[in-house]
Each structure stands twice: as C-alpha cells, then as structure tokens.
Amino acid sequence: MRQTTLPDGTPLPVLGLGTWRLGEDAGRRRDEIRTLHAAIAMGYRLIDTAEMYGDGGAEQVVGQAVADAVRAGDVDRGALYVVSKVYPHNASRRGTVAACERSLKRLGLDHIDLYLLHWRGSHPLQDTAAAMQALVAAGKIRHWGVSNFDVDDLQALAALLNQGEPGAPGCATNQVYYSLGERGPEFSLLPWMRERQMPLMAYSPIDQGALAADPALAAIAQPRGLTAAQVALAWISSQPGVLAIAKAGTLQHLQQNLAASAVELDAAERQAIETRFPRPRRKTPLAMI
Ligand SMILES: NC(=O)c1ccc[n+]([C@@H]2O[C@H](COP(=O)([O-])OP(=O)(O)OC[C@H]3O[C@@H](n4cnc5c(N)ncnc54)[C@H](OP(=O)(O)O)[C@@H]3O)[C@@H](O)[C@H]2O)c1
Fold first, then answer.
1. If I label 272, which of 1, 88, 103, 225 is the partner at 20 to 30 A Cα–Cα?
2. Within a domain: residue 289?
3. What beta strand segments (E) does 229-283 contain?
C-alpha cells in the first residue's frame, strides 16, 4: 500500500480502518472481533479507535481482534499501528495519563502507537501536551497528536510547543473531517500541515456512506469496474500528505477499500471529480461529525 510519513519519518499506510459504532452492543461483539481480525489478515495495518467509541467497547473489540490476529500468526504487533483518543474532558495533565492507562488496559496492549486529543476542550492545551510528552517518555505511546483542530488551534499549539523543552516530541498529526463532500480543509488547513510535513488523517472519507451512492462518482467508477466509494477513497488516499480512516463492516467493503487505496486516477477522472465536487474558494469553519 502507498505510504505517508509522520514528521519524524515514521511511515504510515494511506488507508486505515475506523471503529466508530463498534463495541456498542454485546450481542454483536463476536462478529465485530471476527471482522476486524479478518481485516488485519487481509492487510489493514492502521486501526483508529477512541475511548469514546462504545464507552470503551470499541477499544475492547480492537484489543481482542489484535490479540487473535497476533496469536494466529496473521501479523506481528510491531507491524500494527493502533490509534486511540482521549476525551477533552479527561485531557488534564493527570487525566490524560489516567485515560491512557485505562485505554491500554481495554486494548490489552503495552503501548498505543498514536494517541490523539479527540477535540479541543476546556483543559489548557499545555497540560494535555505535557501529559502526551510524558506518555511518550514512559513508552506508553509512540506518537501523539490532535483531532478536529483548525489552523488557529494548531498555531496556538505550535506556539506553546515552541516555548517548551527543546527536542520534546511534537504534535505528529491532526485528524479531521475531510472527504469529497467536505473539502474545506484544502483551503488553508491542509497547506499549513503540508508545510510542516504533518500528515492529515481524514475521517469519514466516504461521508459516512453517502459518497457510495453518488451518481457522478458511480459514472466515473463504472468503466473501470470500480464502485463510487472506491473512487472517493482512491481520490482522498492519493492526496499528498493525507491518510484516510474509513470504516467498513463487511468483508466485501473491506476488500474493496483496500483495493481502492492502490487505484491511480487519471487526469480525465480527476477533472470529472473536480466538476462534481469543486475545491473550496474561501475559508469555511472546520466541519465536525
Ligand atoms: N476524530 C473524530 O472526531 C472522528 C469523527 C468521525 C469518525 N472518526 C473515525 O473515522 C472513521 C471513519 O468515519 P465514519 O465511520 O464516520 O464514516 P466513513 O468511513 O466515511 O463511512 C462509513 C460508512 O461507509 C460504508 N462503506 C464503507 N466502505 C464501503 C464501500 N466500499 N462501499 C459502500 N459503502 C461503504 C460503511 O458501511 P458498512 O459498515 O456496511 O461497510 C459505513 O456505513 C470512524 O469509524 C472513526 O474511526 C473520527
């Protein structure tokens, strides 16, 4: 799969798997674990979760699927990149560390590869950043970052990190809503992040399924034997400095999405996409789901 890199050069696949809405229903848990295990076996290496999803239930599902996949010899833990997020109301200096410990326990892991502040809340950013840096130093997380931050939030974070300890690990990424239906980040956020070699993690890249039913995308997809959702994913995962987190609950969708991340769109296909989903001409507030 194509890769992008974190500011320190760590490679990441351009497509990861989302887990929102998993772990909410005990009756579905075994199926969810089986599907996630199958996803890992077919090649997914980056899994995105959060303490919020299913009130910790999604982290339990991820942890069990990872354990099953490692035990079955389908993957080495070191080849997986597990992302989780702290709730803003937990993101104090001590609260972040405690939330991370709880997530590690639910995941059954000794470290989280990337730990994000889910969105900006009322705890001072410098307390959250200090906690994140302490977690990196303790080996509990490998990298840290933020989510749902627009340029002004990232600038505020950068200013306080510049005043901090030299060499302390900085913010590695920002996960935001970005898709063909929501191209707002292209106006100033994505350029700002690209200048700093900070990859953008695009959540809801299929617009929560809506792009799969888009007739213009279907018309672009059909001659190549693709689906509309695959064209949407091929487009976003080929944007420089972007990796997409898509959620899929069926083996067919999982396979299609993995295949889409290797599709190269030609100039005519890109032009047809631009016509249907024009790029933003002015700044709009960052959209959130
Ligand atoms: N940081 C944040 O604040 C934030 C916010 C929202 C989401 N996220 C993360 O981003 C992930 C993805 O976002 P999302 O779940 O909102 O939406 P999404 O990935 O844009 O869309 C998921 C929907 O698309 C469908 N789908 C997937 N692959 C398909 C395919 N090949 N053909 C047709 N339909 C397909 C899925 O159906 P099936 O399930 O039936 O396959 C599901 O209904 C989340 O799971 C979560 O991890 C983060």
1. 1
2. no
3. 242-246
User: 257-288, pLDDT tens digit by residue?
Assistant: 999 999 999 999 999 999 999 999 999 999 99
Listed residue (197, 204, 159) closest to 178, CA to CA: 204
At residue 271, the pLDDT reads 98
Residue 235 belongs to what domain range?
3-276
**Residues assigned a catalytic role:** 53
Dist. CA 135 → ligand 1 center (Å): 29
Task: Give the total number of structural domains in the chain.
Answer: 1
pTM beyond cutoff 0.90: yes
Q: How far is residue 227 from each of residues 13, 207, 217, 223, 277, measured CA to CA in Å?
A: 21, 15, 8, 10, 17
Distance CA 256, CA 238 (A): 16
Determine, yes or no, domain membership for 189.
Answer: yes
In a domain, residue 281? The reply is: no
Q: Is 256 in the pocket of ligand 1 (CB under 6 A)?
A: yes
Phi-psi sector, 225: left (phi>0), alpha (psi -120 to 50), beta: left
* Ligand 1 mutation pick, 233, 247, 251, 261, max ligand atoms within 8 A of CB: 247
Answer yes or no: is 164 within a domain: yes
CB 187 within 8 A of CB 280: yes
Q: Which pLDDT belongs to residue 165?
A: 85
User: Which domain CATH number covers 150?
Assistant: 3.20.20.100
> Does the beta carbon of 116 lie inside 6 Å of ligand 1?
no
Nearest to 97 by CA among 145, 134, 67, 72: 134
